[in-house]
Amino acid sequence: MTSSESSALSRRALLRTTAAAGAAAAAxxxxxxxxxxxxxxxPPTRTDRxxxxxxxxxxxxxxxxxxxxxxxxxxxLAQWDKMVPYFELIGARSDRVxxxxxxxxxxxxxxxxxxxxxxKNLAELDKLVATNARLADPRGLSETDAKKLATEGKxxxxxxxxxxxxxxxxxxxxxxxxYRLATEESDYIEEILDNLVILLQPCQNPxxxxxxxxxxxxxxxxxxxxxxxxxxxxxxxxxxxxxxxxLTQIESRYNVSILNKYRPQVFQDSHGxxxxxxxxxxxxxLSPYDPNIDSILVQQTNTVGMxxxxxxxVAGMKGNGWGSTYDYWSASRQYCVYHGSARILTEAAAASNxxxxxxxxxxxxxxxxxxxxxxxxxxxxxTLRNIIDWVSQAFYSxxxxxxxxxxxxxxxxxxxxxxxxxxxxxxxxxxxxxxxxPQAVHDALEVFHRGAVEIRQAxxxxxxxxxxxxxxxxxxxxxxxxAGFAKTLLEVQEYPQLLQYPxxxxxxxxxxxxxxxPMLLGFEADLISTSFSADTxxxxxxxxxxxxxxxxxPSSGAYAIGPESYGVFRIVxxxxxxxxxxxxxxxxxxxxxxxxxxxxxxxxxxxxxxQLLHTQSESTGIPVSALSAVPDVAGIQLKPGTKIGLIxxxxxxxxxxLMWMFDQYGVNYSIVEAGDYADLASKYDALIMPxxxxxxxxxxGLSSAKYPSDWAWAFGVGTTGWNQLHDFVTGGGTLVTYxxxxxxxxxxxxxxxxxxxxxxxxxxxYCPGALLSxxxxxxxxxxxxxxxxxxxxFVSNDAYKLTSTSTYPVDVVAKYPDSGDQLQSxxxxxxxxxxxxxxxxxxxxxxxxxxxxxxxxxxxxWNRSEQRMLFNAAYYGPSTKxxxxxxxxxxx
Length: 892
Description:
The chain is of the alpha+beta class and 892 residues long. The chain folds into four domains: 3-10 and 96-420, Zn peptidases (Aminopeptidase), CATH 3.40.630.10; 424-538, no CATH class; 558-633, Alpha-Beta Plaits (2-Layer Sandwich), CATH 3.30.70; 644-882, Class I glutamine amidotransferase (GATase) domain (Rossmann fold, 3-Layer(aba) Sandwich), CATH 3.40.50. It has 26 helices and 40 strands. The chain has an eight-stranded mixed beta sheet with strand order 1-2-4-3-5-10-6-8, with helices on both faces. The chain has an eight-stranded mixed beta sheet with strand order 28-27-29-30-39-38-36-33, sandwiched between helices. Strands 25-20-24-21-26-40 form a six-stranded antiparallel beta sheet. It is globular. It starts with a helix and ends with a helix.
């Protein structure tokens, strides 16, 4: 019998109204008019405890008192600048709540965490955290001691709201959750807090809640659209919960730091869905689940999800579903599951225009019952208050499932850890030292290190699975608590072929199906199946490999930096910033018995160049060589201070990710504004048009009738601006496009290409996010430095047939193999339609240079190995082309 079964507390819907909790402590049960057939009983109040609201000092006002309006009121959204002080006040006045500012967000707003439990548990929090950590890493821990710790410890339940800022209900509900947990005196709440530590993050994306809620408030009473029109995270927008493998954003890193510190048993990820979705989705998920997720966690996920469903059913809350839409596969959305936490995704149906009622002509949502949708919603109205009530009921029911079964949750942490540290296959991964791209290796190791994976480095050469590895190679043994995180990122994904029904169409994955870092970044990682002996040291930090400082070349020579690492463009951006002349060799050459590849960067010797290259080489691990003479080959000189324009319509996430990458590298770029089109050539040397940029987003843009003048940069430029973009290129400008933007370029220039992919159902061709085979012409400037068979990222993109070579001079940069299995990692249906299709093309259009890619070469900063082609093309187009004689004189 579990502790929940033996609990003296009722398992009926014990949720006292959160709406009422915001109005008065003695309010009625949470039932919204028209949604419930019966009101559950209010939990009895204990009389032998002091008032929770006055245990420290001062009164804790209700949310309605503090904000001046009840939470969930139509047309009202609490704003972050008042929410944060309220959470601080609760933390100061309640001995159940500890307020903490983890850090500042990307735009400088407080990133907040509330730790909520009984006063006794909070007083012993360090001990409870240590217990969780010991159970999670059971090496050297006996089963007897583990059971004792499971008896003494308390499980942690981490709930997160507001990562997607337009899904407003959860962060609003979190205000009421914090108040209720801090003040309610019932046996129900006391029992939960005695047996559980709640980590409440009221907003994972503070920048988003500021942008969205403040804009909503500012446009009240106007005819403007009420929804903030741009990315609600500076770089990632709605992709901010797809960053949990690469961990590029400060908010992602804060999130991981919380998970790594507390090792919560449950991570509740609270979201919103479309207006027509189930009123609330919870797990269980659709199949499949990533096999690197422990099966115990999968079962526990199902347990909590169904407890939430049960709670809503008992409360008379209809229209809820599970086992649809969302699977348990994509690692980028669920860092927690590789670190011992069940991921509980909740998705609440949206109301109208953020905070206004959604009203239909009949009952909303699906009206047929199913095994995973048992009670259709029977009202034609859905409000922000409904959202808060539904997500609150689910939240408390989830807390119950863990608090009433606390021993088993803790003991299962130990069992999960034991399975991880006693793994027998695979034995390890080895990342050999001395690879072609030290930046790729460094970036991967940093991901693993942030992910609490133990990385060891060999002090001496060793042999594993019959292969010899040099000293300095990295070893990731699989017998460690969080090896699943490393394994899912290092291995090739084989997404299962699932059908919607026998003989039917394929079941569409919810998200991407591959995340193989060696293919995305461009490095080698060998799977080792059998045990081996190696002298290694555990790394406490990740540093670039030590490289020797190049000797100063003679005045007739040059510094040389190979193009093999995508990190070289950090160095290029630094050279550009200091106005140091930079060149590239257009052919392979030799110097001092060493062969240098086409695309090698050359820098004339100077004291400024020497100092910068030494600093950059040391910080990146990218070696710099000294040439005795400038090679006798043709080449180019990069245009000093190359100015790159990024065409970014509002809410374009691919452009946002490029902004992040450009900012990391220090690239000289800016967003192309509507007013720039009249004279693009004076402002930019090269333009980049990422996936999602259409003719409509350029020509029509945002409507001036729907958005205030602050958004004039994103208003449409009309056919005049469209033609000016055409003239910029034909007059000598550079344009680089990828993904759907290649169709936009085709429309702009009538490019002679046609899709090779069928236009029928997903049964004919479907690739929702996978790594595919590719053949590159590495002598083409756009592909300099790219491995000849570098896999490419494909996510519902396109592939082409070149129908004419006479319309414009054109060269094939990249193509799919003529035949064979096109899939490298992930899932692909109909790969034969890719056979011999072209992907990357470089065009001469008038006096301009255009490079187009059908796939997404700049996807979320993941595929950095191929992303270098953006830099290659953007710098090559505006460069000065030099003969061998001119090159030897460095253009003088």
